């Protein structure tokens, strides 16, 4: 997957569109591929909720792009527009693996010590053909619930995701763009994965 194949946030920001429009034909919910995609996303969430970052790393394609553009608040004609060149994070396989190694193999990952207790709820999964065999554009919504320390309050982080998934013998995440619903995130840090 090349950067050109990732949804063009810039063009959509200039036109005032909040989220990318699917580019291909939708896969029916009764299609076995749709069931496989939903099962993959549920299994991925379970890995992350159980803090199995090494297992999650095995789901990433070597050319992954993992990013979250900054949301801006503008006048009512352009509500929900995302920046085209500013990101809360913009990662590739190397930076993701370095962070995972730091979290799993060192004592210096203070942001997650002690570990957060999380639940990821993935829903509204819609899959579309991309035109490449075995590759799918998947739109979904996610709500992250996170509890930290002994604080009785939950951190709630809602977002929409656009993934490029590759099927075959194993499913892999080739791209993930996360569109947070909040312009100012109500969480202490982003030391978690969505």
Structure, described:
With 194 residues, the chain is α+β, with helices and mostly antiparallel strands. It has a single domain (3-180), classed as Nuclear Transport Factor 2, Chain: A (Roll). Helix content is 22%, strand content 36%. The protein has 4 helices and 6 strands; from the N terminus they run αααββαββββ. The protein has helices at residues 9-15, 32-49, 53-57, 93-105; strands spanning 60-71, 82-91, 117-129, 135-147, 155-166, 172-180. A 6-stranded mixed sheet has the order 2-1-6-5-4-3. β4 (135-147) and β5 (155-166) form a beta hairpin. The two termini are 20 Å apart. Residues 1-5 and 8-17 have low confidence and may be disordered.
CATH T-level fold name: Nuclear Transport Factor 2, Chain: A
| CA radius of gyration | 17 Å
Main sheet overview: 6 strands, mixed
CATH architecture: Roll
Question: How many strands?
Answer: 6
Overall helicity: 10-25%
As for the number of domains, it is 1
What is the level 1 CATH name? Alpha Beta
Query: What is the chain-wise order of helices and strands?
Result: HHHEEHEEEE
What is the number of helices? 4
Strand order of the largest sheet: 2-1-6-5-4-3
Q: What is the overall pLDDT average?
A: 86
Uncertain residue ranges = 1-5, 8-17
Oligomer: single chain
């Amino acid at each position: 997957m090349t950067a050109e194949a990732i949804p063009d946030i810039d063009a959509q920001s200039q036109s005032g569109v909040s989220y990318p429009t699917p580019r291909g034909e939708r896969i029916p919910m009764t299609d076995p591929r749709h069931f496989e995609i939903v099962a993959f996303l549920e299994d991925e969430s379970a890995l992350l909720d159980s803090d199995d970052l090494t297992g999650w790393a095995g789901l990433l394609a070597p050319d992954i792009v993992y990013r979250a553009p900054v949301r801006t608040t503008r006048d009512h004609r352009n509500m929900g527009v995302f920046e085209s060149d500013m990101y809360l994070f913009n990662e590739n396989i190397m930076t993701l693996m370095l962070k995972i190694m730091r979290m799993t193999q060192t004592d210096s990952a203070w942001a997650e010590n002690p570990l957060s207790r999380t639940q990821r709820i993935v829903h509204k999964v819609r899959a579309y053909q991309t035109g490449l065999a075995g590759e799918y554009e998947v739109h979904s919504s996610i709500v992250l619930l996170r509890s930290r320390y002994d604080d009785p309050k939950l951190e709630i982080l809602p977002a929409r995701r656009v993934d490029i998934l590759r099927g075959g013998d194993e499913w892999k995440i080739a791209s993930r763009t996360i569109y947070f619903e909040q312009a100012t995130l109500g969480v202490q840090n982003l030391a978690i994965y969505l």
